Amino acid sequence: MGENIDIFAAAWQELEESVIYYYNRPVGTLAAADNEVAALNYDQCFIRDFVSAALVFLIKGKTEIVRNFLLQTLKMQMKERQLDFLEPGRGLMPASFKVVHDQEQGEQYLLGDFGNHAIGRVTPVDSCFWWVFLLRAYVQATGEYSLAHQPEFQKGIRLIIELCLVARFDLYPTLLVPDGACMIDRRMGINGHPLEIQSLFYTTLRAAQELLIDNKENSYIIQAVAKRLPPLVEHIRHHYWLDLQRVNVIYRYKSEEYGEEALNQFNIYSDSIPYDQLSRWLPENGGYLAGNLGPSHLDCRFFSLGNLMAVMSSLTSVEQGEKIMNVIETRWDDLIGQMPMKICFPALRERDWQVLTGCDPKNRPWSYHNGGNWPVLLWMLAAAALKTGREEIAKNAIEIAAHRLPGDQWPEYYDGRNGRLVGREARKYQTWTISGFLLAQEIINNPEYLSLVCL
Ligand code: GLC
């Protein structure tokens, strides 16, 4: 017990040391404080990375940093409609930002990266969703609705929803995005309609319903959100769902069906599904949401963030949520192993790895995004487990993490089939590893904090 208290105290200290300041005010946290590897952009504050830190700060009553972050990132959001293709679209928020010190002028300013500097020039679609998620959590924790009700915040939310709902190229209720548009910010065959984006998109629509004031200016957006939600939920719960019963149906699908009556609407060819593995891997009482769905494309990989967020946000039904937790419990070695938890399972191998990652050496099989284990996912696992009444899953996972994270100096990710190796290129003192661990423990200690992250 005493040892555990030390671990948490040490983690908290590391977290406080990662805070970055803008004109002497706390405004975010570094992605990592590893002095042994080139910083690249790990010395910046990433929107998605800051979320778990922000939640810990909110729980500890340190609300100022979260308020400053929300305000400053809102200022960075693209506000004008751009016809110039070199500018990010209106409503988009940066992946990360840094504080620049202009020594000559004696001034400071914040510089956002909208993917224009990022490796692979990936679009940070998830940033605006995490921002809304955090704004809702801030309001929940502080009761300060007036912040979200300020005209600039209302406009910020409207622009995000407009960006998602107005101009689009397809007729699905889901959101179409390029590859690497979320936590997995490298090419990984997740272009199209990846689950992670859909879970965050759904969470944002639900949070917007809570945060938008019912007035004339917002009415068309509120209506559009209300119209989109039911088909989105129906589409995900039905078409993305994989359990033995569904796999049986898909296995016997006919193809080339035309018109409204088509059963196999997306023309999935049976041979594209890894039936042999799935029929052995899926437990009788389990199921999960597939990674992606498009024309003749059903990605059967298990993606943790998308599944856990779907449980937390109630995108999945109660029964589906339970079945997802059953899969995690039954396939513990594959999905949790020696470090909670795998970002996706299984890894892409051989020709799949070549074609879908573009031969990315950082994403070789069972490493990094391609089947690596990411401790930041621990807090989402804990929240989903608690929400579904499976506290023991959360507790066991935290115990595994507590055993290794401090001694390994809080790595960004782990490699290997069971996550036994510290990631080959993992940063040490990765902030969201530290904050994710603290947050998971806070949620276990006080389940009322679930209301900050669950819908
Ligand atoms: C990596 C991760 C990304 C994260 C960033 C900073 O690029 O893939 O999700 O935001 O590092 O930690």
Overall shape: it is globular
Structural class: mainly alpha
Mean pLDDT across all amino acids = 96
Provide the helix percentage. 40-55%
Strand content: 5-15%
**DSSP E strands, number:** 13
Rounded to the nearest angstrom, the radius of gyration is 21 Å
* Tally of contiguous helical segments: 18
- What is the count of distinct domains? 1
Give the helix/strand layout.
Elements: H1 2-17, E1 19-22, E2 25-29, E3 45-46, H2 47-59, H3 64-76, E4 96-102, E5 107-113, H4 126-142, H5 145-149, H6 151-165, H7 195-211, H8 216-239, E6 241-243, H9 244-251, H10 275-281, E7 287-289, E8 292-294, E9 297-299, E10 302-303, H11 304-313, H12 318-330, H13 332-335, E11 344-345, H14 350-357, H15 378-387, H16 391-404, E12 414-415, E13 421-422, H17 431-445, H18 450-453
Antiparallel strand pairs: 1-2, 3-4, 4-5, 6-7, 8-9, 10-11, 12-13
Bound molecules: alpha-D-glucopyranose.
Alpha-D-glucopyranose binds next to helix 2.
